[in-house]
Write a structure and sequence with these properties.
Blueprint (H helix, E strand, L loop, with lengths): L1 H14 L3 H4 L3 E2 L1 E2 L2 E2 L3 E3 L4 E8 L1 H4 L3 E7 L7 E7 L5 E6 L6 E8 L5 E2 L1 E2 L3 E10 L5 E5 L1 E8 L2 E9 L5 E7 L4 E10 L8 E8 L2 E9 L3 E7 L5 E8 L10 E10 L2
Parallel strand pairs: 1-10, 4-12
Antiparallel strand pairs: 2-5, 3-5, 5-8, 6-7, 6-9, 9-11, 9-12, 12-22, 13-16, 14-15, 15-22, 16-21, 17-20, 17-22, 18-19, 18-21
C-alpha cells in the first residue's frame, strides 16, 4: 500500500511540472520551406519554418546553413531570430550555378538538444557563353567576334561557308533550359546575300528563321534540358555571286552545373 501511494505521488508531481521542464532534454523540432527550388544566380531565396516547442524557442536564433557539394562541410550563411509564434525567416542569394543544399539548425539550450531540419535543394542557373562549352562536329563555322547589322558581338558562332550548310553541336548534358542570341546574318555576307539559321534541340527544331543582309533578331529560346543542341547556318542566296553567312551573336545558354 505504501508503494502504491509513493508511485501515485511521483506521477502527480510529474503532471504538475511546468511545460518547459517536462520537455527538458528533448530535441528541437525544426521545419523548413524554400520560396523557390529553381532560381537564377543572385536571385533571393527565402527560407521559412517553425521551431517547436514554440514558446521555448521564441527569442532564440536559428542558423541557415548551406552545402555546395556532397562531402563538403555545412557553412552557416545567416542567423535568424525566432518570433513569439516560433517562426523564423532567413534569406540567401546563391551566386554559383549549381545545386545548393540548405538546412536550418536550432542550437542546443539548457532545456533542449540541437535540432536540425530536413535538407532542401535549390538549383541555380546562370548564362554561359556557348563558345566556352564543349563543342563537337563543327563544319564551316568559326568562334569569335562577328558583325551583324553594324554591331559587333563577341563570343559568337558564325558561318564562312557559302553555298551550303554550316553547323556545330554543343554538349549541354541535360543542364540547360534556355538559349539566347542575336540571330542574323554576318556583315561579311555579300549584298543580296541570304542565310537561314536554326537551332535543333536533340534533333527537334526549336528555332528557324531566314535573314537578309542587315537583318537580325534578339531571341530567347526555351530548351527541354537536351543532351545536345545543334546550330545550323545555311546559305540560301539565289542571285549569282552572292553569299549569306548565318550568325549567332553572343550566343549563350542558361545552365546549371
Amino acid at each position: 500500500m505504501r508503494k502504491l501511494i509513493a508511485t501515485g505521488a511521483i506521477a502527480l508531481g510529474l503532471a504538475t511540472l511546468p511545460i518547459s521542464a517536462a520537455h527538458a532534454g528533448t530535441t528541437w523540432i525544426v521545419g523548413i520551406k524554400a520560396s523557390a527550388t529553381t532560381v537564377n544566380a543572385g536571385q533571393k531565396v527565402v527560407f521559412t519554418g517553425t521551431v517547436r516547442p514554440r514558446g521555448a524557442a521564441a527569442g532564440e536564433k536559428v542558423l541557415l546553413q548551406e552545402k555546395f557539394k556532397p562531402g563538403k562541410p555545412w557553412v552557416t550563411q545567416r542567423k535568424a531570430k525566432i518570433n513569439g509564434k516560433g517562426r523564423y525567416s532567413a534569406t540567401d542569394r546563391p551566386t554559383t550555378n549549381t545545386t545548393h543544399a540548405y538546412r536550418v539548425v536550432m542550437p542546443a539550450t539548457n532545456k533542449h538538444a540541437k535540432g536540425v531540419s530536413k535538407t532542401v535543394k535549390v538549383t541555380v542557373y546562370a548564362w554561359s557563353h556557348l563558345v566556352e562549352l564543349d563543342s563537337t562536329n563543327a563544319r564551316g563555322v568559326l568562334f569569335g567576334s562577328v558583325d551583324i547589322n553594324g554591331n559587333t558581338y563577341k563570343h559568337s558562332v558564325y558561318s564562312r561557308w557559302s553555298g551550303g550548310e554550316a553547323s556545330v553541336e554543343f554538349n549541354l548534358d541535360h543542364q540547360c533550359d534556355k538559349l539566347r542570341s542575336t540571330f542574323g546574318i554576318s556583315d561579311e555576307s555579300t549584298t543580296g546575300g541570304q542565310a537561314e539559321v536554326g537551332v535543333l534541340s536533340d534533333g527537334t527544331s526549336v528555332y528557324d528563321k531566314t535573314f537578309d543582309v542587315g537583318q537580325s533578331q534578339n531571341k530567347t529560346v526555351a530548351l527541354a534540358t537536351p543532351l545536345k543542341i545543334k546550330l545550323v547556318a545555311t546559305d540560301t542566296s539565289t542571285a549569282p555571286g552572292t553569299a549569306g553567312y548565318g550568325a549567332f551573336g553572343n550566343a549563350q545558354a542558361h545552365c546549371t552545373q
